[in-house]
């Protein structure tokens, strides 16, 4: 059974869709042990199983197998207690466009059983906190993407939850809005809120999370502190751009210097145990073979490398 | 913050209030549900005026016959209209936010039901006022009018239960077609347009076993010449209670099943 003392604990959590030959194993045996006051990053590409896991942990979806406890309560048999103790900002910030920000916060206060006298006060406090006081009485349909995200976060905080789930909270946001939301998440965590954050942005996980789990095809393939995971990758990666017709030959040569690493299309990657000291030798060797180098870049191990090493491919549009 | 257990009543009123507020924000979606019953009552009464000349027809005023039918249809649409908006919330993802709240699941049904009842009362009142201008006259005073409200609220209740259940099962606009089709079927496979006494063949057989027919009869009691007696009232009341309970139970089960898909 999952640990009752932890804010989020899952053991062998599974969610399958369909049956027979058409079965899709969206989540296939996820184990999680998230500590009180931690920001935990759940990293993976689209369709990896992040949102399905969050939907199970937040009681929206019943697991096919395994156990999970959130805020000390079982997500299946004590779903109402789980809901009372968590805040959730789901992907896409789906908010009724016909209502105003203030009306939605007041409705949320009603649904969470806050005393009537506190509805207005709490709504005003949260609107101020997320910088939406000026837009409070405008219909949400007129809000920008960033404003909707901030309102969604405010809605999830109405009852000051001890555990907060943020499902890709910054997807689609401009850099300024993203950084503002990061600051808010840090502030919440500083106040003692445990945060489970799913993201497909490596930089976001690196910036915010004390520990991360990388999920791919419904299975957690790496788990740990970002620094430790990067250290496990070891040597830095040298990325080299060459013409496609000589890529195979170039790969053979690079393999003489270290292990080949997955890269985006059109680029080759090799781990260099000797770091920058080896670069000139690599270039010389390629030159001797008559292979022209279009561009080259040495990267210290990043979460992108951790991800690539764990899954065999790189996240599209990875930012670090 | 310590969150108290959310009461069914408070959460239901909150959700109903949201539905009513949205009506004022999107009148284009609401006005047809008022206009259609009014139009139906008036135009059917004019078009099928000669129906009252059939020997034994229960009233001499055609609008007295068609007005309750229009109220039943309008009430049905007030109910399944809630199903449409729930589909919209499910498709947009807003319904997830409602489901994530600790509000009792019963309030997720009771809130929309309350909103449907408000819509049905509003619609019935407007149809009655305009119907009166076109010659509709209650034959048994306020009691008969109240029975029309009871029948209308009953239809709105079972329309809401059915609409919500289908919305939860389909989760997209395919459900809207199912809701409308079933409402039309139960409504028109009955004495909606002509009394049982002049029906023949399979339609008569279906009408006799259609429980919805009892509700239409109940709604018409205050507008036809026959006296209101317990014998011609209880069947409609039982149909309202049983069908309302069954559809709401179906909605409750379907809501629970949302966590499986």
List keywords for this structure.
heterodimer; A: 320 residues; alpha/beta; six-stranded mixed beta sheet; four-stranded antiparallel beta sheet; 11 helices; B: 261 residues; mainly alpha; 10 helices; 74% helix; elongated
Describe this structure in words.
The complex is a heterodimer of chains A (320) and B (261). With 320 residues, chain A is of the alpha/beta class. Helices cover 33% and strands 24% of the residues of chain A. In chain A, α8 (226-233) crosses α11 (303-311). The longest helix of chain A has 16 residues, at 175-190. Chain A is elongated, with a radius of gyration of 23 Å. Chain B has one domain (3-260). Chain B has ten helices and no strands. The mean pLDDT of chain B is 93.
Describe the protein's topology:
The complex is a heterodimer of chains A (320) and B (261).
Chain A: E1 8-17, E2 24-34, E3 39-43, H1 50-57, E4 65-70, E5 73-74, H2 79-85, E6 86-89, H3 101-111, H4 119-129, H5 145-156, E7 163-167, H6 175-190, E8 194-199, H7 202-208, E9 211-216, E10 219-224, H8 226-233, E11 237-241, H9 247-254, E12 260-261, E13 267-271, H10 279-288, E14 295-299, H11 303-311
Chain B: H1 8-25, H2 27-47, H3 62-92, H4 94-100, H5 105-133, H6 141-170, H7 174-188, H8 201-209, H9 211-220, H10 234-257
Helix pairs in contact in B: 1-5, 2-3, 2-5, 3-5, 3-6, 3-7, 5-6, 6-7, 6-9, 6-10, 9-10
Q: What is the global morphology of chain A?
A: elongated
Query: What is the oligomeric state here?
Result: heterodimer
Individual helix count of chain A: 11
Number of strands of chain B: 0
The averaged pLDDT of chain A comes out at: 90
Strand content of chain B: under 5%
**Total count of domains of chain B:** 1
Strand percentage of chain A: 15-25%
């Amino acid at each position: 059974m999952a640990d009752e003392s932890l804010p989020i604990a899952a053991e062998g959590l599974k969610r399958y869709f369909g049956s027979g030959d058409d079965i899709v194993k969206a989540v296939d045996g996820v184990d999680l042990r998230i500590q009180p006051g931690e920001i935990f990053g759940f990293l993976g590409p689209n369709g990896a199983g992040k949102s399905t896991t969050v939907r199970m942990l937040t009681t929206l979806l019943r697991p096919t197998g395994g156990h999970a406890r959130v805020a000390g309560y079982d997500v299946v048999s004590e779903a109402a207690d789980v809901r009372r103790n968590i805040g959730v900002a789901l992907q896409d910030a789906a908010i009724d466009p016909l209502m105003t920000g203030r009306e939605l916060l007041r409705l949320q206060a009603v649904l969470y059983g806050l005393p009537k006298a506190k509805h207005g006060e709490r709504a005003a406090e949260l609107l101020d906190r997320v910088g939406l006081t000026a837009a409070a009485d405008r219909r949400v349909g007129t809000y920008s993407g960033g404003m909707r995200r901030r309102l969604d976060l405010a809605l999830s905080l109405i009852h000051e939850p001890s555990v907060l789930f943020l499902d890709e909270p910054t997807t689609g946001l401009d850099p300024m809005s993203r950084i503002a939301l990061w600051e808010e998440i840090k502030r919440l965590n500083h106040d003692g809120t445990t945060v489970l954050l799913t993201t497909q942005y490596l930089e976001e996980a690196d910036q915010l999370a004390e520990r991360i789990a990388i999920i791919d095809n419904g299975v957690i393939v790496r788990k740990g502190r970002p620094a430790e995971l990067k250290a496990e990758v070891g040597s830095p990666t040298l990325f080299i751009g060459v013409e496609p017709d000589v890529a195979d030959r170039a790969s053979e040569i690079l393999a003489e210097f270290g292990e080949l690493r997955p890269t985006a299309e059109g680029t080759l990657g090799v781990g260099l145990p000797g770091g920058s000291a080896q670069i000139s030798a690599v270039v010389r060797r390629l030159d001797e073979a008559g292979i022209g180098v279009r561009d080259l870049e040495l990267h210290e191990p990043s979460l992108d490398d951790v991800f690539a090493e764990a899954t065999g491919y790189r996240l599209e549009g990875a930012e670090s | 913050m310590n969150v108290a257990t959310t009461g069914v009543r408070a959460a239901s009123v909150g959700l109903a209030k949201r539905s009513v507020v949205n009506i004022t924000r999107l009148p284009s979606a609401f006005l047809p549900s008022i206009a259609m019953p009014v139009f139906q009552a008036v135009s059917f009464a004019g078009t099928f005026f000669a129906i009252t000349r059939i020997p034994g027809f229960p009233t001499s005023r055609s609008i007295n016959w068609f007005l309750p039918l229009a109220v039943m249809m309008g009430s049905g649409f007030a109910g399944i209209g809630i199903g449409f908006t729930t589909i919209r919330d499910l498709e947009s993802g807003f319904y997830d936010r409602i489901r994530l709240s600790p509000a009792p699941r019963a309030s997720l049904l009771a809130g929309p039901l309350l909103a449907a009842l408000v819509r049905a009362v509003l619609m019935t009142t407007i149809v009655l006022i305009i119907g009166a201008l076109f010659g509709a006259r209650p034959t048994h005073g306020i009691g008969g009018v109240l029975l029309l409200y009871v029948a209308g609220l009953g239809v709105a209740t079972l329309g809401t239960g059915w609409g919500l259940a289908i919305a939860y099962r389909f989760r997209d606009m395919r459900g809207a077609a199912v809701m409308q089709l079933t409402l039309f079927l139960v409504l028109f496979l009955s004495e909606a347009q002509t009394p049982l006494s002049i029906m023949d063949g399979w339609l008569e057989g279906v009408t006799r076993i259609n429980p919805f027919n009892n509700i239409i009869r109940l709604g018409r009691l205050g507008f036809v010449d026959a006296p209101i007696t317990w014998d011609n009232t209880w069947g409609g009341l039982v149909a309202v209670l049983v069908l309302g309970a069954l559809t709401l139970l179906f909605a409750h089960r379907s809501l629970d099943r949302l966590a499986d898909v």
